[in-house]
Specification:
heterotrimer, A mainly alpha, B mainly alpha, C alpha/beta, A: mainly alpha, MetI-like fold, about 75% helix, elongated, C: alpha/beta, Rossmann fold, 3 domains, 19 strands, about 25% strand
């Protein structure tokens, strides 16, 4: 019993540590990178890691560390916007359907069931193939695709919470539906909503990486983690470090956030 | 019986709905396919003629019904690449087999590895082995399958030379060689999912172990092992079935990326090239295939539920 | 069989859990004996250690539990030092257990027959047919009328009472010498409770096995136990023959326990006299309340059930009307209809509140106190916020006045202002119920509906809350409608009692 608490705690701290490290790197990358991430230098083509270029250089002689810092920033911004779009719309849909129920809820949730049973990358591919590739399109596509999962989480919490006596009490006091939904009930969903947002961020990072790897997301020369992996693919034999740096960055990002959200759920 | 009937109806409706939605998405939204087929400088008469020939002058429901008639017979029209010479169905047939094999292999690996590991980690709860499994699962869950595929290529293909990267062996030429080659992408797809399954199964088992019926079984004088296999496991697997269905759908999606890394001639690769070439006829059919597979998987899960859980059977 | 032969003896048993380096003792030097063929009652509140004692005998203690001293002897075998393998052989065959939770104690995926039969398979050797025949015989023996059908049914297909009978069949089928029944009737309705107790008594008479009956409810213990042990905080405070113990309790705690159950002593004490000429504050005429079940799926039909049938009640100002009924009788539905939470009603509900608007401008609508104080307080808000919210919504007081009112109210319910900064989960059940009462009273209502306000609390806390309610009633001239399934609680506080069953009033009398 005691040991378990300790390991959970350990994992949580480890997650915080990894995440703050990765976040720090990305934040610095917004203002300063060791080299211009898009500056090409043929003389430095495919160099392994050296003191000057800690993570080596790519096929155009660009500094990989700088590109990872900048690229992770792009990936993070995409993921954050996706989570904001999906989380906000999903919370609103989940709140309304969960609280009011009825035929509206029936219809929306059936639609939700259908959408969530399909892998999100497939839905994103459908969207991109119809509306064309590009950063904005994948943000919109992923944002919409993430709505059902949040709607479902929030809705199921609301269905339980709205039957609780404190909600009946609030009705007796004369609180309006809007106040009950957003002031009385919604704060109680944070126990599941916050971990869901973190997991959503992870999924968005993965989806961006996947789509950009398929050249359907972020377009060159802009760097993103998926974009870099796509470029690195052809140079696996000569310069494997090119792929490993952005790959590790994705792994650390996701590991950190899932350790944190795991620790939150255990509390 | 009522349950089965209801699920069958839902199943058929979902298939129709999906086919209609994908039809709308790919035959209507992208714009005038006559224009894209014949080019911007085609004459009006030419365009009219083409539209008439392809049935594009009819209303949307009629076009859908005409398309559906063909689709049921396996005729999905022509690909817009290859100068309209290639039937979509021929293009897809061999690719589908590759992707299905990839999905089946990785699914088998996932089930065979994760169920024993999950049970082991739940049984050794709080032990060092359990902690190790927990940490390792967390790490592997964080690795995107296509990056894992790149690493596997680097280690087993380039460094150890156990297989030749990009050198696909077709099943007609050498089935054994095909399977051996397919093991690598299958493992790449499977590993993150194994980690997820172990974590899920472990928490499902631990949740069940806390329940009252386990205490009842102990009070009967049963051994821990027979309680685990006689009572807990079946209950713990119920939520796992839904999870497995989700994993299977995810495998199909994961395959799209992994096929790209291993240069496999599967559906995923075809999908990506077709998207790049704006070959909507092909994209449409691939999406429809994968969506139908997902619906079929969910239908089977519903049936399994009914078979395993008496509470579902009643209502 | 020698009736005085000792079957089980617990000697100086202490058990604790280590928590943060400190040992938290849950059983403190317990000694007791169970004779062959007797029914021993163990009574105590939650946390008194009665269940821990049972688990120790069964060898089912949580892994984190530590045995600090003592031993348990069962027919010459020392249970605590015995190997797991030997202990397992005793479990079920020699000592078996009946649990409280009759639904969750069965495996939902296996039939009742399979689960009862499993007990036999573990401890005896018969052919397949014999196993089945013996199982069906056992099911018939516990009063299940169609044992062949029930053999093939799943737990969820039976009623609570039937499941509890099946659990008794499971506990008895291998012919144990000792059965431990841990709150076997607590989850059941009162009428079924007594039937299950009679069943236990019958099995005891017929097969002569000893029974340890554990309950928080003195009446359960009194009905079938020959000897009783009273436990509190892990200690045995008193023991003796049941009748003697309850008529002449020696220990202070036992006295309190007995006093809290006045039916045992047949003395009712309601002190507050109602003015017979007072005005009716609540008039209910020919009330019908309905409940629509949600349509299942898109094709499902909506079904409408009538929960309350043609009820008429007059409640006078200043009195306490008790409404008693079993679960499902419609008493909670009635409460919700009175306060306006149930919209599907026919008939008249009139609240004649002559001081509808009080000096501070707050409107006095009837307020309600709910059963479960864990559910009625918003878990994500502080107590201060929770108390202030009704004032924000129902009065036009300024911020300062609201805070003053909150501070005043929290003291009225016997707590201090330091609790205002806490969250509900930081309070005990009794404290939460005090806060819930404060929330109801803060807007100066005249009429308060109390829906099982003390049912989830321990007996001694119940008495404190009831006392406080009486005091508040005197102070603020409140009228109570007090809903409960527990006649003892009703008799302690109500002037008039209205008994309802299946949505109709079956009796109306002075308390």
């Amino acid at each position: 019993m005691k040991l378990k608490v300790k390991t959970c705690h350990f994992n949580y701290i480890l997650g915080l540590l990894i995440t703050s490290l990765v976040l720090l790197m990305v934040l610095i990358g917004f203002f300063y990178t060791p080299y211009d991430p898009n500056e090409m230098n043929v003389a430095l083509k495919n160099n392994p890691p050296t003191l000057a270029h800690l993570l080596g250089t790519d096929n155009f002689g660009r500094d990989i560390l700088s590109r990872v810092m900048k690229g992770a920033g792009t990936t993070y911004i995409i993921a954050v916007v996706v989570v904001i779009i999906g989380g906000t719309l999903g919370t609103i849909v989940g709140t309304l359907t969960g609280y009011f129920g009825g035929w509206f809820d029936e219809v929306v949730m059936r639609l939700n069931d259908v959408l969530t049973s399909f892998p999100s990358i497939l839905l994103a591919l459908v969207f991109v193939s119809v509306f064309g590739p590009g950063t904005y399109n994948i943000i919109i596509a992923l944002g919409i695709i993430f709505v059902p999962s949040y709607a479902r989480v929030v809705r199921s919490e609301f269905i339980v919470l709205k039957e609780r006596d404190f909600v009946k009490n609030a009705k007796l006091m004369g609180a309006g539906s809007f106040r009950i939904m957003f002031i009385h009930i919604l704060p109680n969903t944070r126990r599941v909503l916050i971990p869901a947002l973190l997991i959503g961020f992870n999924n968005a990072v993965l989806a961006e990486a996947g789509l950009s790897y398929l050249s359907l997301g972020v377009q060159p020369p802009q760097a993103s983690l998926g974009r870099m992996l796509s470029e690195a693919q052809s140079y696996m034999i000569d310069s494997p470090w090119y792929a490993i740096a952005p790959g590790l960055m994705i792994i650390l990002t996701i590991l950190g956030f899932s350790l944190i959200s795991g620790g939150m759920e255990n509390e | 019986m009522k349950y089965t009937f209801k699920k069958c109806i839902v199943f058929i409706i979902s298939l129709f709905l999906t086919s209609f939605l994908t039809f709308t998405a790919f035959e209507v939204i992208p714009g005038d396919s006559a224009l894209s087929a014949l080019g911007m400088d085609a004459s009006k008469e030419h365009l009219e003629e083409y539209r008439k020939a392809m049935g594009l002058d009819k209303s949307l429901p009629i076009r859908y019904i005409n398309w559906l008639k063909g689709a049921i017979k396996g005729d999905f029209g022509y690909s817009s690449s290859y100068q309209m010479q290639m039937k979509v169905s021929t293009l897809i047939k061999n690719r589908l087999i590759v992707t299905l094999w990839l999905a089946i292999l990785s699914f088998l690996i996932i089930v065979l590895v994760s169920i024993p590991l999950g049970i082991l980690s739940a049984r050794k709860k709080n032990g060092i082995l359990d902690d190790l499994i927990t940490l390792v699962t967390q790490i592997f869950m964080s690795v995107p399958s296509f990056f894992l595929a790149m690493i596997i290529t680097l280690i087993f293909g380039i460094t150890l030379k156990w297989f030749r990267p990009g050198d696909y062996i077709s099943p007609e030429d050498n089935f054994g060689g095909f399977l051996r080659f397919m093991m690598y992408p299958a493992i790449a797809v499977a590993i993150p999912k194994i980690a997820m399954m172990v974590k899920f199964l472990r928490s499902s088992l631990l949740r069940e172990m806390e329940l009252d019926y386990v205490r009842t079984a102990k009070s009967k004088g049963m051994t821990k092992i027979s309680i685990l296999f006689g009572h807990i496991l079946k209950n713990a697997l119920i939520p796992v079935i839904t999870f497995l269905a989700m994993v299977l759908a995810d495998i199909l999606a994961g395959a799209i990326l992994v096929e790209q890394v291993f240069n496999l001639p599967g559906l995923g690769r075809l999908l990506v090239t077709s998207i790049a070439n704006r070959d909507y006829a092909v994209v449409h059919v691939i999406v429809l295939y994968i969506a139908s597979l997902v619906i079929i998987i969910n239908f089977i899960v519903d049936l399994i539920y009914q078979w395993i859980d008496p509470r579902v059977r009643r209502d | 069989m020698n009736k005085n032969e000792i079957l089980l003896s617990i000697e100086d048993l202490s058990i604790g859990f280590s928590k943060g380096g400190k040992m938290n003792t849950v059983l403190d030097h317990i000694s007791l004996e169970v004779k062959k063929g007797e029914i021993l009652g163990i009574v105590g509140e939650s946390g008194s250690g009665k269940t821990m004692t049972a688990l120790a005998v069964m060898g089912l203690l949580p892994e984190s539990a530590k045995i600090l001293s003592g031993g348990i002897d069962f027919l010459g075998n020392e249970l605590l030092t015995m190997g797991e393998k030997e202990h397992r052989r005793l479990r079920g065959k020699e000592i078996s257990m009946v649990f409280q939770e009759n639904m969750s104690s069965f495996n939902p995926l296996l039939t009742i027959g399979a689960q009862v039969e499993e007990m036999l398979r573990l401890h005896s050797k018969y052919t397949k047919e014999e196993y089945k025949a013996l199982t069906i015989k056992a099911l018939r023996e516990v009063g299940l009328s169609k044992p062949h059908e029930i053999y093939h049914q799943y737990p969820h297909q039976l009623s609570g009472g039937m499941r509890q009978r099946a659990m008794i069949a499971m506990a008895m089928v291998a012919g144990p010498k000792l059965v431990i029944a841990d709150e076997p009737t607590t989850a059941l309705d009162p009428t079924i409770q007594s039937k299950i107790l009679q069943l236990l008594k019958k099995m005891n008479d017929k097969y002569g096995m000893s029974i340890i009956l554990i309950s928080h409810d003195l009446r359960v213990i009194q009905s079938i136990c020959s000897r009783t042990i009273v436990m509190k905080d892990g200690r045995i405070v008193e023991s003796g023959m049941t009748n003697e113990l309850f008529t002449n309790p020696c220990n202070q705690y036992t006295k309190e326990l007995v006093a809290a159950v006045p039916m045992l002593n047949k003395e009712y004490k309601n002190t507050y006299k109602v003015d017979r000429d007072s005005h009716p504050i609540l008039t209910i005429q020919n009330l019908n309340v309905f409940y629509s079940e949600k349509a299942i799926g898109l094709l499902g039909k909506k079904s409408r059930k009538q929960v309350i049938r043609d009820i008429s009640i007059l409640v006078n100002e200043g009195e306490t009307l008790g409404i008693v009924g079993e679960s499902g009788s419609g008493k909670s539905t009635l409460a919700k209809a009175i306060v306006g939470l149930n919209k599907e009603i026919e008939g008249v509900i009139k609240i004649n509140d002559f001081t509808a608007i009080s000096n501070d401008g707050s409107v006095s609508k009837p307020q309600m106190v709910f059963q479960d104080p864990y559910g009625s307080l918003n878990p994500s808000k502080k107590i201060g916020w929770i108390l202030e919210e009704p004032l924000k919504l129902q009065s036009n007081l300024g911020k300062k006045e609201r805070v003053a009112r909150v501070n005043e109210m929290i003291e009225q319910v016997g707590m201090t202002t330091k609790y205002l900064e806490r969250y509900p989960f930081q309070l005990s059940g009794g404290q939460r119920q005090r806060v819930a009462i404060a929330v109801a009273l803060i807007v100066n209502p005249k009429l308060v509906i109390l829906d099982e306000p003390v049912s989830s609390l321990d007996t001694t806390i119940q008495a404190q809350i009831l006392e406080m309610l009486k005091e508040l009633q005197r102070k603020y001239k409140l009228t109570y409608v007090f809903i409960s399934h527990d006649l003892n609680v009703i008799y302690q506080i109500c002037n008039r009692v209205c008994v309802i069953n299946q949505g109709e009033i079956v009796e109306m009398k002075e308390a």
